[in-house]
């Protein structure tokens, strides 16, 4: 811990899981202002030495709870999110749960109910919301800089991560794109059609192509895979005035404007098309998204106004990802229009 928060209170935090993502959480928690990392939970111990040297590693969640913590970060495998989250909720401990919220819609619903019924602060680690390029993009869309939005296209591909064994590419990676698309546009999914393949010999799918539609008619395309040697993280939003391209690997945001070019060619005068205009790459302050995510959640636990990804928002992403898999397995378009008021989540 370094320093204290504006409230003068120091929060006691724990971390569950020190795998590939957990070690990054450990690093941030160890230096987070106003937070003391009191223990790490991992039944396997910490053979890689990911936990800070002065923080004890304990085998069970109950050992962490016994130390008295205000909140915990759940960074264990997705299949364990539900039992670990329910144990924390029962103990009255707030939780930041890595994405996806749970391995199934039913499990996600049980987690939402467990934390909400006890009035506990809980959030989901959809880290792309804190990417500087996407935060700038969202602000510009809200300001109407693109005019009417026509299409959102995301590409998220790269080599297979050996650490992932319990879920496929839809729940592990495509949930990023589902969440960020709804968040940057302020719209929800109405329907999805998807195809998946499995080429790596694993139980789950390792490539998915999705075509979807948002509730306002915006077209959505997601291409996600673990089969490419090229690592790519791209979000392109096209609209009436041009398109934004966000590269979330570099946190760059570029705008390509529709040019205003007059033509004397009579046959083209009636065509409402586009032409190449100015290109602008914005200067953006680039803070580490994980650091920002932790600061926002810390503030929420302290009772300060803070923008976190709520469990209900995380549940909605799990619902849409389930619809993607249903479409892929059935070969048909699946209606996934929200049954709730999107503004309420």
Average pLDDT works out at 91
The CATH top-level class label of the largest domain: Alpha Beta
The count of helical stretches stands at: 9
The strands making up the biggest β-sheet line up spatially as: 14-13-12-11-7-10-9-8-15
Biggest β-sheet strands, sense, barrel? 9 strands, mixed
Radius of gyration: 21 Å
Give the name of the CATH architecture of the largest domain. Answer: 2-Layer Sandwich
Low-confidence stretches: 341-345
What fold name goes in the CATH topology slot of the largest domain? Dihydrodipicolinate Reductase, domain 2
Overall structural class, as computed from helix and strand content, comes to alpha/beta
Total strand segments:
15
Can you walk through the features of this model?
This protein has 345 residues and is α/β, with parallel strands linked by helices. It has two domains: 11-128 and 291-309, Rossmann fold (3-Layer(aba) Sandwich); 129-285 and 317-344, Dihydrodipicolinate Reductase, domain 2 (2-Layer Sandwich), CATH 3.30.360. It is built from nine helices and 15 strands. The chain has helices at 22-30, 61-66, 81-90, 105-117, 132-142, 169-185, 266-269, 289-301, 311-330; strands spanning 11-16, 35-41, 57-58, 71-74, 94-98, 122-125, 149-157, 189-197, 207-214, 219-225, 232-239, 242-247, 252-258, 276-281, 334-335. Strands 14-13-12-11-7-10-9-8-15 form a nine-stranded mixed sheet. It has a six-stranded parallel sheet with strand order 3-2-1-4-5-6, sandwiched between helices. Helix 3 (81-90) links the parallel strand 4 (71-74) and strand 5. Mean pLDDT is 91; it is low at 341-345.
């Amino acid at each position: 811990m370094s320093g204290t928060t504006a409230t003068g209170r120091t929060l006691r935090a724990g971390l569950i899981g020190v795998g590939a993502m957990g070690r990054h959480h450990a690093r941030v928690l160890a230096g987070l202002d106003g937070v003391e990392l009191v223990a790490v939970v991992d039944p396997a111990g910490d053979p890689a030495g990911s936990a800070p040297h002065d923080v004890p590693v304990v085998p069970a969640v109950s050992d962490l709870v016994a130390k008295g913590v205000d909140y915990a970060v759940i960074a264990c495998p997705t299949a364990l999110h539900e039992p670990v989250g329910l144990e924390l909720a029962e103990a009255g401990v707030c939780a930041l749960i890595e994405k996806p919220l749970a391995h199934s819609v039913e499990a996600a619903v049980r987690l939402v109910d467990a934390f909400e019924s006890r009035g506990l602060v809980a959030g989901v680690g959809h880290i792309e919301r804190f990417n500087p390029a996407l935060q700038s993009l969202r602000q510009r869309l809200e300001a109407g800089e693109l005019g009417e939005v026509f299409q959102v296209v995301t590409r998220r591909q790269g080599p297979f991560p050996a650490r992932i064994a319990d879920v496929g590419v839809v729940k592990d990676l495509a949930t990023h794109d589902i969440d960020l698309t709804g968040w940057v546009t302020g719209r929800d999914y109405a329907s999805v059609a998807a195809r998946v393949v499995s080429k790596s010999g694993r139980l789950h799918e390792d490539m998915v192509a999705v075509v979807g539609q948002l509730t306002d008619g915006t077209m959505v395309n997601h291409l996600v895979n673990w089969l490419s040697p090229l690592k790519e993280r791209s979000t392109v939003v096209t609209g009436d005035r041009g398109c934004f391209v966000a590269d979330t690997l570099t946190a760059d945001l570029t705008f390509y404007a529709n040019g205003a070019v007059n033509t004397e060619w009579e046959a083209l005068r009636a065509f409402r098309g586009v032409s190449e205009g100015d290109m602008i790459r914005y200067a953006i302050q680039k803070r580490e998204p994980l650091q920002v995510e932790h600061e926002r959640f810390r503030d929420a636990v302290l009772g300060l106004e803070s923008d976190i990804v709520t469990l209900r928002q995380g549940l909605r992403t799990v619902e849409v990802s389930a619809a993607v898999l249903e479409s892929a397995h059935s070969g048909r378009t699946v209606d996934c229009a929200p049954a709730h008021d999107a503004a309420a989540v």
